[in-house]
Amino acid sequence: MTEGFSLAIHSIEKNFDQVKVLKKIEMTIRAGEFVAIVGHSGSGKSTLLRLIAGLEESDEGEILIDQKKVQGINPQVRYLFQEPRLLPWKTVAANVQLGTEEQDSRVVLDTLEKIGLADKKDIYPDKLSGGQKQRVSLARALIGQPRILLLDEPLGALDALTRMEMQNLIESIWVEQRFTAVLVTHDVEEAVTLADRVFIIEDGIVIEVVEITLSRPRIVSNDKTYFTNAILKKILRKNQPDPAEDYVI
Amino acid sequence: MKYIKKHQALRMIIPWLVPLLLIFFWYEATLHPSDTLLLPSPSEVVDRAIAMLKTGELQNYIFVSTKRAFMGFFIGGLIGFVLGLINGLSVTINLFFNTTVQMLRNIPALAIIPLMIIWFGIGEEMKVILVAFGVFFPIYANTYHGIKSVDQDLLEMGSVYGFSRFSMFKNIIFPSALSSILVGVRLSLGIMWLVLIAAETVATDAGIGYMAMTARGLMQMDKVVLSIILYALLGKLSDVLASIVEKRCLRWKKI
Description:
CATH topology of the largest domain in chain A: Rossmann fold
Number of strands of chain B: 0
Oligomer: heterodimer
Shape of chain B: flat
Number of helices of chain A: 8
Helix content of chain B: over 70%
Structural class of chain B: mainly alpha
Mean pLDDT of chain A: 87
CATH superfamily of the largest domain in chain A: P-loop containing nucleotide triphosphate hydrolases
Structural class of chain A: alpha/beta
Largest interface: A-B, 18 and 18 residues
Number of helices of chain B: 12
Distance between the termini of chain B: 18 Å
Radius of gyration of chain B: 23 Å
CATH topology of chain B: MetI-like fold
Low-confidence stretches of chain A: none
CATH class of the largest domain in chain A: Alpha Beta
Helix content of chain A: 25-40%
Distance between the termini of chain A: 51 Å
Order of helices and strands of chain A: EEEHEEEHHHEHEHEEHH
Number of domains of chain A: 2
Mean pLDDT of chain B: 88
Shape of chain A: globular
Strand order of the largest sheet of chain A: 6-7-8-3-9-10
Number of strands of chain A: 10
Strand content of chain B: under 5%
Largest sheet of chain A: 6 strands, mixed
Number of domains of chain B: 1
Strand content of chain A: 15-25%
Order of helices and strands of chain B: HHHHHHHHHHHH
């Protein structure tokens, strides 16, 4: 079993054309922790994830992965994009193979079994459904045994039922492999379902961190709704009046 | 429609119905003996073909023409492919060459025939170079375009997975450009025969074009028509070849 890496983000700033997208972001994520980052679109949450992945450079501050400064792409860090980004000219197995140097086809098959698509190994991604494609993409990310998995709204394009299945799958694999996971999402309920802690980002700063003290796996319950509503309230408070105050029952 | 979809044999036969019909009309038009002076009957053309096959003349002409066509295609295609590749991959090199290529592109291949005859005479080089010149551009342009239109998201995925430059090219850039490159190949196969026919009719000492020109001088209309049919068949054949290659290379596409 691989252990996750810790992740520390110190006063990160990032500008795009004079616009400050991130302003002095501070975050400390423990090894093996599952955190979620929620916020409005345009709040800079995806940018933060790209900085952690080394896809972009910050203007100020530093990011430490396992106490070492991030400089470019780190092979221990994998990124799950919103779109599956599979190579259409490669079979499912060959796509998963891209995630590892290991040439043993047994490893690919094991990983595909884990995500429940072993029987699809020889077909082209064209023939898969959206959820299946995203699962292959997950397998490609996991086969290299990453220490950190970054998830950039990977379930955003899926239908509600498939999304729930994927959430369960991601959680069960995380429980088993214990990598550190950072999930960016605009779906607050998804954040509450998966994360140990939820960071709320607004206008480029972390305005609140909510600890989700529910036991796993998290089924639909009043407790879950409580957390979801509490976070939603914090996100929405700046722009809108609290709907609950308008409609007193 | 369903019935046609189900039967492979029918799908093989139907495309040939129109050519058969044309041959029938041709036959009809030449039934009266006085008409055959300007338009020979199908049977005359077939007789001529058989006679020429027996002497080995026909095979020789076909061989000579095909060899020229494919040599020119190979040379022009290779240059176009390599140039398209490096121009697509490097912005600096593109800055150096693109304007020149765009200027050359506007010169019709047939316009340089006089120059080629003076430089190289009417031998093999002139025809091969002309064909190479003609096929160069479609392959260059489609290779360049194919490489330029690689999905940036896939390239980003490749860099997250730590692909080397070579593996980026092998796994992402080339396969994604391939369908566009093959469109270029198909286009240039058509141009290949077109330019060759023109070159062979203007000046030559062997090949199908030579056969047509000498026959014209002797008013052997059956031979003239035979050469036209040969070009049509050879053109169709290379197109079939291209589509087989395409199907094999692009298996992953839903066609």
